[in-house]
Amino acid sequence: MRQGWHIHRAKTHFGLTPGQWRIVKAICNGADTRSKLEKTCNLSRSTIGKHVSIIHDCLGSSSIAGIVLHVLADDAARAECFPDWVNHDTTTSNM
Question: What is the pTM of this model?
């Protein structure tokens, strides 16, 4: 029996597909509107809309800012989206 192609798709951070993760990375890099996402990701408006809706469902967010906050809260995702990010540990003191 032949299995569907979708069964073998790899998942990335937060259980997103590579295409959905590419949109998250574009959002973190400043593509904060659907028209910017269309240009950055070279996808149609309807495809962007479907992906963003799935991303919101997976993350439990309802806004672009919510997506970015989820990325910032996850060390591995933050390192991939914001490679120059310096994480200052505020829980310890050097005094």
Answer: 0.79
**What burial class does residue 37 get, using C-beta atoms within 10 Å of its C-beta: 0-12 exposed, 13-18 middle, 19+ buried?**
buried
User: Which of 1, 5, 75, 59 shows the shortest CA–CA distance to 27?
Assistant: 59
- Pick from 73, 75, 67: which is nearest to 25 by CA? 67
Q: Are 48 and 37 in contact (CB under 8 A)?
A: yes
Which domains are delineated in the chain?
14-81 (1.10.10.10)
Q: What is the token pair recorded at 25?
A: 């990375």
Residue 93 has pLDDT above 80, yes or no: no
